[in-house]
TrEMBL record:
Signal sequence, renumbered to the chain: none
Record organism: Sander lucioperca (Pike-perch)
UniProt-listed PROSITE patterns: PORPHOBILINOGEN_DEAM (PS00533)
Pathway info: Porphyrin-containing compound metabolism; protoporphyrin-IX biosynthesis; coproporphyrinogen-III from 5-aminolevulinate: step 2/4
An example Gene Ontology biological process: protoporphyrinogen IX biosynthetic process
Name of the protein in question: hydroxymethylbilane synthase
Amino acid sequence: KLFKLISLLSWQDGSGKVCRVIRIGTRKSQLARIQTDSVAAKLKELNPDINLEIVAMSTIGDKILDTALSKIGEKSLFTKELENALERNEVDLVVHSLKDLPTTLPSGFTIGAVLKRENPHDAVVLHPKHIGKTLETLPDNSVIGTSSLRRAAQLKKRFSHLEFKDIRGNLNTRLKKLDEKADFAAIILAAAGLRRMGWDNRISQILGPEDCMYAVGQGALAVEVRARDADILEMVSVLHDPDTVLRCIAERAFLRHLEGGCSVPVAVHTEVKDSQVVFLYFVDEQFQRVGVTASKISGEAQDRAERLGIDLANLLLSKGAKEILTVARQLNDAR
């Protein structure tokens, strides 16, 4: 049986060269396919002898579209089915938006690559009748669509004249709801997703950290693999972007120590300056650091990044963050 499995996943071409099939798991959405195709193209460029097969599937988060993410209560909304396929050897690696991956991965899995981050900030997409305005200049009581507690918690403080309501669905669905109905004056989306879809022209405003800090890992793509697959781990490791890795290790360590997730409003803003990670935050035999394996990046630098996230989390906990997050969860559960 093992021989048959190997023969299915590799063969000889006309020149006698052995060709291997690498199966990449992904969600079925258009954005997920675009992101996965970009990773596949990089791998193919670096490894011309491999053949890549894309295996698309739906996740819990894709199927439940009538409930706010924070109310579903599942930590692996967009990853569980993909990780199940990885565990069953139905795929060899999985491409995720890093912000969808819990900070503690299932046993036996690791993030083998964190690619260079796209713009991690949130973007305002206005209804056509409001083109030219900003959140600041929208009329009082205008309704803004977002399913993110993190976004709503920050923007309510900054723009108290606006109302915020849940909106679910993939990018295409949410844009359709905005354009074809009068329910929303604007919606808030990740700039990275809009840019990857080629919809830069829909971005009316980019929200800086003074208005809305972003989600942990937002804008970065992650490649998850089985930790025991040394050859796959080695192949994808060249995709690591060192600055993005260090920023995201710090962010994920911060979130994990706070025990945050979709049901609590935790946000961050990080930069690398002079080889140091600068961190802002908001609260309403391979060695892994918060699920990331990056053997080619200085272990000392990774340790410092992780320590930064933990130290900041401890600082917030000492100032009462645990109680605040507990109340946030209770309020979310009561909605």
